Amino acid sequence: MLDMTSMEKLRADCNPDAVEQCLFGIERQEPGALEEFYYRTSASVYGFALSVLKNTQDAEDIMHDFYVLVWSAAGKYRSDGKPMAWVLTVTRNLCLQKLREYRKKSDIPQEDWESYISGNGNMSAEDKMILSECLIRLSDEERQIVMLHTVSGFKHREIARLLELPLSTVLSKYNRALKKLRKIYGGEQ
Question: Of 48, 86, 120, 168, which has the most beta carbons under 10 Å away?
C-alpha cells in the first residue's frame, strides 16, 4: 500500500517507462500495479475527460470506466513507447461514447475547474493561472489542445494524432489560443 508522500511523488511522475511497466504489471495481476498506475495517470485522465465532457460527474464516471477497462483489458495494450497516448486515446473514446449516449454538452461550474486546477500539484502557479483563463475563454477544441500540451506534456504531433486533427490545425488552434490569452493578459479585451 502506498503512503501519501509516495502517492504525491507518483502523481508527479508520469514517466512513460513506469506507466508502461504498470500496465504490464496489471496484465500479470501484480499487487499494487493498478494502484500505482492510477496515481501516475489519474490527473491526466480526469483533466482530459473534464475538458471534453465539461461535467465533473461525467468525468468521474469516465475515470471509473477507464480503470475498470484497464483492469480487465490490460493485455490488449501493445507497447509503442507512448503509454500516455494510449491512456488518453482510450479516455477520449470513452468520452465520445458518453457524449453519444447523452447527446449533451453542459457548462462546467467555474468552482469545479478551480478545484481541479488548485489540486494539481504538477503545475506552477503561472500554469494554473493560464489554465484557469483557458478554461473560461477558449473554445472546447482549443481548451483540449492547451490542456494536453500544458497539463499532460504532449507534443503537438501527438495531440494531432490523439484528436484526429491535422498537425497544422492543432498548431494554429494552439497559437490562436495563446494569442487570445496574450490579449487578455495584455489588458486588451
Answer: 48
What grid cell was written down for 1?
500500500
CB-based burial label for 49 (10 Å; 0-12, 13-18, 19+): buried
Q: 0.85 cut: is pTM over it?
A: no
∠ at Cα 23 (19, 85), nearest 5°?
55
Residues 6+ apart with CB under 8 A from 133: 181, 184, 185
- Give the CA diameter of the chain: 55
Residue-wise pLDDT tens digits, 165-179: 899 999 999 988 888
Which residue type, as a one-letter code, is found at position 62? I
- Our measurement of the distance from residue 163's CA atom to the centroid of its chain's CA atoms, rounded to an integer in Å, reads 12
CA atoms within 13 A of residue 66's CA, in its CB half-sphere: 30
